[in-house]
């Protein structure tokens, strides 16, 4: 019995020692990573299925409006205002790239993580309509 206790104590010391250094932490993370991936895969499957792309207006109302309302104090070009004129001069392609990657205080994808590239483009077209 005593031997088992000592063995157990040593074993748990070894475990503590092993998990407390960074390399082992990384190994541990790598070992549990597949569990997280399965969970994520499940979430993706849940959201899968035929989904109509949202219109530019829908994307704007869901994500972009938070910052792109006309007259906002953030310096974000206001929806359908002349603010867009100098930005449009860069070309739609550049605006699209900047919206996807983010630029200065503009967050990547305008915080719409589940927006497709086309949906982001549609939102830009909506915001620049009539400019
Ligand atoms: C958290 C606030 C915020 C949200 C949400 C946001 N934007 Fe922006 N956006 C900004 C700001 C601020 C700028 C101006 C950045 C600058 O030029 O310094 C900007 C600039 C832009 C530009 C111009 C980039 C350029 O090259 O001049 C585009 C295009 C754009 N946003 C698209 C979008 C779209 C599309 C959405 C919604 C999917 C969105 N933004 C959501 C804050 C936001």
Write the layout of secondary structure elements.
Elements: H1 2-20, H2 22-47, H3 56-68, H4 84-88, H5 92-101, H6 117-127
Helix pairs in contact: 3-6, 5-6
Bound molecules: heme C.
Heme C is lined by residues 59, 63-64, 66-68, 74-77, 87, 90, 95, 98-99, 103-107, 110-112, 115, 120, 123-124.
Please sum up the structure shown.
The protein has 131 residues and is mainly alpha-helical.
- How do the SSEs run, as a string of H and E? HHHHHH
How much of the polypeptide forms β-strand, as a percent range?
Answer: under 5%
End-to-end span in angstroms?
83 Å
Number of strands: 0
Low-confidence stretches: 13-19
- CATH class descriptor of the largest domain: Mainly Alpha
Mean pLDDT reading: 81
Secondary structure tally, helices: 6
Shape: elongated
CATH H-level superfamily of the largest domain: Cytochrome c-like domain
- CATH architecture verdict of the largest domain: Orthogonal Bundle
**Considering DSSP H and I runs of 4 or more, what fraction of the residues is helical?**
55-70%
Domain tally: 2
Structure overview:
The protein has 131 residues and is mainly α. The chain has two domains: 2-47, no CATH class; 56-127, Cytochrome c-like domain (Cytochrome Bc1 Complex, Chain D, domain 2, Orthogonal Bundle), CATH 1.10.760. 64% of the residues lie in helices and 0% in strands. The protein contains six helices and no strands. It has helices spanning 2-20, 22-47, 56-68, 84-88, 92-101, 117-127. Helix 3 crosses helix 6 (117-127) and helix 5 packs across helix 6 (117-127). It is elongated and about 85 Å long. Residues 13-19 have low confidence and may be disordered. The structure holds heme C (HEC).
